[in-house]
Amino acid sequence: MLSQHTLFATAEASRQLKRLCKHFSHKTEAEWDDHRGQVRFAIGVCRMQAGADGLTLHCTADNPDDLAQVQEIVRIHLQRFAGLESLLLDWHTA
Q1: Which of 24, 34, 58, 73 could form a disulfide with 39 if both were Cys (CB 3.0 to 4.6 A apart)?
Q2: 6-28 pLDDT tens trace
Q3: What's the whole-model pTM score?
Q4: Candidates 3.40.1160.10, 2.60.40.10, 2.40.70.10, 3.30.310.50; CATH matching 2-88
């Protein structure tokens, strides 16, 4: 299992976490509270944690292509919900 994580610096980490999880729950399995969330895609999983410094995203998948796709799905939606023109996330191997 491959995994990578990143931090999206925001003062609205809990709000962004809940918005993402609620949105994804319409199409796939998702669970969340004010501080933690998890979304299970067919190709991988994204776990989220809201903290004082922002929203930590931790993605896992079985292969590099699936991992990149999970990361891109999350990035696109986070960019849209955060109201940003572009969002660059710096992923690190866990």
Answers
A1: 24
A2: 999 999 999 999 999 999 999 99
A3: 0.94
A4: 3.30.310.50
